[in-house]
TrEMBL record:
It is found in: Cytoplasm. It catalyses: 5-carboxymethylaminomethyluridine(34) in tRNA(Leu) + S-adenosyl-L-methionine = 5-carboxymethylaminomethyl-2'-O-methyluridine(34) in tRNA(Leu) + S-adenosyl-L-homocysteine + H(+); cytidine(34) in tRNA + S-adenosyl-L-methionine = 2'-O-methylcytidine(34) in tRNA + S-adenosyl-L-homocysteine + H(+). The lineage of its organism: Bacteria, Bacillati, Bacillota, Bacilli, Lactobacillales. S-adenosyl-L-methionine binds at V80, G105, I126. Belongs to the class IV-like SAM-binding methyltransferase superfamily. RNA methyltransferase TrmH family. TrmL subfamily. Its EC number is 2.1.1.207. Its main location: cytoplasm. Keywords: Cytoplasm, Methyltransferase, S-adenosyl-L-methionine, Transferase, tRNA processing. This is Putative tRNA (cytidine(34)-2'-O)-methyltransferase.
C-alpha cells in the first residue's frame, strides 16, 4: 500500500516544498495537479525542500480529471476540506492494501465546490476554530492527515527509534 498527498493547483512554493519534505520522511508519493503557481525550479521551492526533492516520488498531472484517471481504486480517495462533516480520524485507513489518496485544494480557494459536492462522502476535515482563522496552513494540514494515516497503519517502513549518530557507527 502506498499513500499519496495530492495538491490541486498549489500556489505557494514554500508549502509544496514543506509537503515534499514530509513526503520524503514518510515514503509518501506527492501528486501535483497543474497548473502550478510556481516553477519546480523556483528558488523558494528549492529552499523549502532542497535536500529532499530528489528523494520524493513526485507525479505530475495535467489537470484534475487526469489525476482522477490515475487512481486505481477511487474508493480510496479522500478530499480534505474544512467544509467536510467527517473528521480525518474517522475513516479506517488500515483496512486494505490499496493506495490511499488525500487531495488538498488550492491555498486560496480550496477544491472546486461542484467537485466536492459530487463527492461529499469522500470529504474529511481537520477540526479547527473558524472564529479565529480562515484555514490551517496547507503543509501543516498535510502533515496532520498523513501522520494519522500512518499511525493507523502502524508506521510502515518508518524508523520508530532514533539513534544518535555515534550509535550507528557501532
Amino acid at each position: 500500500m502506498t499513500n499519496h498527498i495530492a495538491l490541486f493547483e498549489p500556489l505557494f512554493p514554500a508549502n509544496t516544498g514543506n509537503i515534499a519534505r514530509t513526503c520524503a520522511g514518510t515514503d509518501t508519493v506527492l501528486d501535483l495537479i497543474k497548473p502550478l503557481g510556481f516553477s519546480v525550479d523556483d528558488a523558494h521551492l528549492k529552499r523549502a525542500g532542497l535536500d529532499y526533492w530528489d528523494k520524493v516520488d513526485v507525479r505530475y498531472h495535467d489537470n484534475l480529471p487526469a489525476f482522477l484517471d490515475s487512481i486505481a481504486d477511487p474508493t480510496q480517495l479522500y478530499l480534505v476540506s474544512k467544509f467536510a462533516e467527517q473528521d480525518y480520524t474517522e475513516p479506517d485507513y488500515s483496512l486494505n492494501d490499496n493506495d490511499h489518496y488525500f487531495l488538498f485544494g488550492k491555498e486560496t480557494t480550496g477544491l472546486p465546490e461542484p467537485f466536492m459536492r459530487q463527492h461529499e462522502e469522500k470529504c474529511i476535515r481537520i477540526p479547527q476554530d473558524d472564529s479565529h482563522i480562515r484555514a490551517l496552513n496547507l503543509s501543516n494540514s498535510a502533515a496532520i492527515v498523513i501522520y494519522e494515516v500512518l499511525r493507523q497503519q502502524a508506521f510502515p517502513n518508518l524508523e520508530r527509534i532514533h539513534r544518535y549518530p555515534h550509535d550507528k557507527l557501532k
